[in-house]
Amino acid sequence: EAEKKYIIEGCQDGIRFDGRGPSDYRTISLENSILPQVNGSSRVRVSNAFDIICSIKVEVSEPNLSRPNVGNVIFSADISPSCQITLDDRNLFAMASEITDNIQSIFISSNALNLEDLCIIPGKFCWSIQVDFLILQMDGNPTDACSIASYVAFQCCKIPKVTLLAGPSGSMDDFEIIGDISEGIPFNISRIPILMTAIMVGNVPLVDGSNDEWDCSSCAVTNAIDRSGMCCGMLLTRNGLLSSENMMEAIKTSIIAAATIFVQLDEFFLQMEAIDKAAALDSIEAPPIRVGLLMA
Amino acid sequence: MQHAELLMEMAGIRIDGRRPQDIRRLCHNFISMNSDGGLYLEQGLNKVLVQIHGPQEARKKSSIEQSNDKCNAVCRLLQAPFSGTEWKKRRIGDKRIVEMENTLNQIVNEIIILDNYPRSDIVIVITVLETDGSLLCCIVNAISLALMEAGICMVEMMVACSVGFVRGPELCLDLNRMESSSGGAFMPVVMKSRSEEVLFLQLDSRLSVKDLRSALEVATIGCKKVKKYLEEAIRERNAATLTNSNNHMMI
After folding, report:
1. Looking at this predicted complex, what is its ipTM?
2. Calpha distance A78→A65 (Å, rounded)
3. Which of A68, A139, B102, B247 could pair with A49 in a Cys bridge, judged by C-beta atoms 3.0 to 4.6 Å apart?
4. Alpha-carbon span A247 to B246, nearest angstrom
5. How do residues B149-176 score in pLDDT, each as one tens digit?
6. A169 in contact with B, Cβ within 8 Å
């Protein structure tokens, strides 16, 4: 009880218990292309708080009858029992489902990916993107870190190129996948948002709350913010009353925090590009996958 | 698949270029994530992460079931949906996962000195990131090393290796996915490293008794190779810990 008071009063003075400001995210460390067997993968480590592996697998499937021209994106999450050893499998599954539902609803509604690009042959074949999160460690709500991980994974993911072939009926209703994955088409990530959850502690919105701060919070709102700083989706994720002023404050704080994260992400992508170019110059075949010892 | 047979006949090597009695490349990394002993192990393309939590206070349920003078060692397995060739999300209570957890529970309860930790729980969390055949053996090797990292007393170190026939009369060690599903006999074997007593053995295909005997001998050879690797890993880890070198101290 006294600790809660300490945290709440500290926030009202603008300082959190670990010295951060209200819109400061914890230190993030990124890796991409860590899993060779899937199309895109990434790992996000937030200093001692989160460790999330994201994998993107692209498969051929049949499009929905009602929408024959679009592909689909499906999210799923798994929480390792290590995160909370006292919880049993059902509870972990319920937590994971909640996270999945939140991410899926905001992502789809914010129109981030052009699903029409995922169509191969209208009505018959389309690409189905399966995004998986594996949460190895968490302190707070992993939704934000998961969205950062998916952003990095989308950036390094490639959809295989296809050539359309004439099928048995004579019309172009068959296709062939070109085997060389390095000729794949990268995703257009310009409209993919990052989710930023702001929790209200006292009357102050905080970004990237730890477990203690979540315990003191009255309500939480998750905003989807894209790289141009526009808020393209919102979800109230915790029961509680949020006044409209507080909501505006929360959105502003989220936007500031997201801007700093996008800067970090861009730096990371430039670094990775430089490494790939250097590798391409050194060897004849540039290895597209960084096969290293995971967890190093 | 004709390639495989040709390779075997003419050059005596398997599809991935190994000799029949070569085990796959092993590499590991100790990690100190939120657990008492954490290890990442790669055996060939198998990628397994093991974290040990314990010994910790017993949860209510286990103290009712278990007598008060032993510890309760539990394995919890999480196989990532992207770990196999096809994407498959495992539901709670998935038969294969439950079966593997039960097997691991049996093995681990045999090998840990339970009397040393009365009224406690030891929880072993296993996360599988990628599979490529002989998963059980890889997990057992990883658990063995992780238990040593966590400082939990064991009777002996346990090692595991799989053995089977792959398109030819010679017994092969450490089969990968293609080889174990090619139709020949496939037998994962878990044994204690020093006394070479078999802790666990599974055979779902047909094997004559004479072949069983030779298969066990070959499996022992494989287990010895794994034992060598694990012992080397422990020695390095101890040396690093004692000299406080920064290389192996992961945060």
Report:
1. 0.85
2. 30
3. A139
4. 46
5. 999 999 999 999 999 998 778 899 999 9
6. no
